Amino acid sequence: MRRKDILPYSLVVLTLMSSLASLGSVHVPGGVAEGTRALDVSIHYPGWHQVNDTDGNPVMVKGVFYQVDIPTNETNVTIEMGFQGDFTGTNSSTHVLFVKNETGWHDVLYGRLVNESLCSQDDEMTVFSIALDWDAYTSIQNDENPGAPVGLWTMRIFVEGVEEYNHSIYVDVPVITFSMSRQDYEFRVDPYVAGNFTPISSSNYSILYNTGNVPIEFEVNFGDYENVFSATNTSGVFYPGENTLVYVFLNSVEWSPRTMDIHPDVIGRLKWGVRIQATAVLRKQYNLPLNIHIEVRLPGYSILDMGTAAIQYLSGPFVMEYQEERTVDYYLTGVDEVTLVFSAVNITIVRVEYDGHEIDGPLTLGLSEETPSHINVTVRADYDSTQGLLIASASNTSGVMGEVHTSFQTNPAPPGETEEGAKNPFVWVILGVGMAVFVLLLVMYMKGRKGGGTSKGSAAGGNGRKGRREKRKTEEETIGEEENGKNDAEKEGAEPGGNT
Predict the structure, then answer these.
(1) Do 330 and 315 contact (CB within 8 A), yes or no?
(2) Is 25-172 a CATH 2.60.40 domain?
(3) Domain with residues 302-414, CATH architecture
(4) For a tag site, which of 11, 41, 147, 298 has the least CB within 10 Å?
């Protein structure tokens, strides 16, 4: 070939070399049999270990930075990867090329798939931090636009231009999930007392399990209640298959009686996600809610929260002896006016007292947040061997209504102190109605005896003319009987005289 024919090709080569000068030496791959492992290379998440598939191939999850540990301290090291062994691709979905030279670590083709802050070199090891691309944010659920395809890629490594490693890499889809052993917490807080509280149950922690295939860092987001709650062990990296304990504490203020339900999020975020744009980092996250229930009430009491009013009460059950009396306390607080009506089933209300005065009928109170209103209700166990119920029905000015129940269990009465019918109040109702009917009939009967014929005449008169005729006939018969009686008496009186 003549010199003038060689010149144009020489200029092309010089131009290519000049364009790569800023990156140092880029070594064009040579030919080495697949599966070559002259170097003991490790591919893993930062701070973790290598994971292999069932065929022994290292696994890389796309969209996440990995560290590639290469046992060399040479200046020029190159990593190249191609989908299904094809190194001719021109986009990040199928072909990547990374270089380490005297100026640092570089993503030669795309400029964003190297995390230089996680790269290093010492006398024994050169560490790359590289990632495979993730083009679409939705590709976790939809692989139609997956970025780097899932399946087998080939990685080859060159040290000072010599291919030292050639092996298959299995590329997988990111799965960002975790589970919790417990999501429900319940706290009881004393009214008007500030302090630190743990949940009512024996433990105040939840075990978090990383059930995905990527490292995550997590936090508990309490939102507007971040000054009230605190959680521990919510920092650091959480690798696939690992678990950690998260403790939850309540730092209460001086609350008046109330109930609260709060649902903070436990958020797990992808750690070491790639940049999907020039300045945007892939920050896919997974959320689980916590369910926290708080009751600010006296120890041993239950509470009904009506929004603008709260009622603290004892729910029972209380065991009582037959005809025993017991006083039940209610404490009301709020910013509203509340009306209470008390009723009972299988238990007798003896009296209702408020502020030292006995109340008869519905009770209406204006409430205060700071000072509870105290109500006493005394009941008596008049029905033996029975379950009784004291009911307080409440309503506020907003139309909100509610009921609180206190239950009782009455023991059997001593022999001879009660009848079987006492067990059921409806028996007494039936007996009362029967007695009233009996008394009414008795009164009517007595009136009939006292009125004699007049009563009969009145009854007959109710049947029209026939009644009047019968009445007249009756009167005539009565008069006739009286005259006959008089004549008989006269005869009886004459006979003794006649004999004389």
Answers:
(1) no
(2) yes
(3) Sandwich (2.60)
(4) 11
